[in-house]
């Protein structure tokens, strides 16, 4: 009798289908894979004898996944040497994604900082491709400078289906505003939503902290805000404790958290 047991931590070799340079430091790798992650889940990408890194899925389609990666360490530096036809090792998906069913029919507010756009990109693509799934989308995206902008073509296309505010921290760019994303929260008409809304926030920890506080100040309810945490996951199945904050395992309980939990996750 033959038993086919799936090992949840066994990496699988996957071929790179394409590499797109989004910016100087962020590249998008399209990888052949039959996995079907939920929006907001992550995979573990690995290079034998080098290591592995948790990366959110930034887009997916039939037979492929995309990962938008910033070169910031040993593993990602080696991944950046890979080309089309080379092999990456994947395992997953892991973690809890965005509560997509809870978003159905609601006014959506999505606020991102820098490459924090990547973990919500697949969600935004789903909203854009399924008109009527949500009432509408208000998207606020901030980047440090023009050189850090990613997903140029999609940012342009989303102008046609979302209410968008694109901003650079201090630089100027035609059609863009200047300032931190927190400065534009006050322009969100929460009073007109009739209580039927949800807010998604992703970015560096300080950005999420102050955006959360500004949202509360502007009338958003804490129970309707969601955030995604970037964390160095090791085993990704809650065994090693590497991503643990107090009693919370980010790899299992997150990386997506309601703000009522996220605001207390401090190392």
Automatic annotation (TrEMBL):
Mention one GO biological process in which this protein takes part, according to its record.
pyrimidine nucleotide biosynthetic process
Every FAD-binding FR-type domain range = 9-100
Task: Please provide the record's keywords in A-Z order.
Answer: 2Fe-2S, Iron, Iron-sulfur, Metal-binding
Annotated PROSITE patterns: FAD_FR
Q: Where does [2Fe-2S] cluster bind?
A: 235, 240, 243, 251
**UniProt key word Metal-binding:** yes
> Which InterPro entries does the record match to this protein?
Cyt_c3_hydrogenase_gsu, Dihydroorotate_DH_Fe-S-bd, FAD-bd_FR_type, FNR_nucleotide-bd, OxRdtase_FAD/NAD-bd, PyrK_electron_transfer, Riboflavin_synthase-like_b-brl, Sulphite_reductase_B
Q: What is this protein called?
A: Anaerobic sulfite reductase subunit AsrB
Q: What is the species listed in this Swiss-Prot or TrEMBL entry?
A: Lawsonibacter faecis
Lineage in the entry?
Bacteria, Bacillati, Bacillota, Clostridia, Eubacteriales
């Amino acid at each position: 009798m033959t038993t086919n047991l799936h090992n949840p931590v066994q990496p699988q070799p996957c071929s790179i289908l394409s590499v797109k340079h989004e910016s100087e430091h962020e590249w998008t790798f399209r990888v052949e894979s039959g996995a079907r992650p939920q929006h907001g889940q992550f995979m573990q990408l690995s290079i034998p004898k080098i290591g592995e890194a948790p990366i959110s899925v930034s887009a997916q389609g039939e037979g492929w996944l995309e990962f938008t990666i910033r070169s910031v360490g040993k593993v990602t530096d080696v991944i950046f040497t890979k080309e089309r036809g080379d092999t990456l090792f994947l395992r997953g998906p892991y973690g809890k994604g965005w509560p997509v069913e809870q978003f159905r029919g609601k006014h959506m507010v999505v606020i991102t900082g820098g490459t924090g756009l990547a973990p919500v990109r697949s969600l935004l693509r789903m909203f854009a491709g399924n008109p009527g799934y949500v009432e509408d989308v208000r998207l606020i995206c901030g980047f440090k400078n023009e050189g850090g902008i990613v997903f140029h073509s999609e940012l342009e296309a989303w102008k046609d289906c979302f209410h968008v505010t694109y901003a650079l921290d201090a630089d100027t760019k035609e059609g863009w505003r200047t300032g931190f994303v927190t400065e534009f929260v006050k322009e969100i008409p929460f009073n007109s939503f009739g209580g039927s809304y949800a807010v998604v926030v992703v970015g560096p920890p300080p950005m999420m902290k102050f955006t959360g506080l500004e949202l509360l100040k502007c009338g958003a309810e804490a129970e309707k805000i969601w955030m995604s945490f970037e964390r160095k996951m090791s085993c990704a199945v809650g065994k090693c404790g590497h991503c643990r904050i107090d009693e919370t395992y980010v790899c299992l309980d997150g990386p997506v958290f309601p703000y009522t939990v996220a605001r207390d996750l401090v190392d």
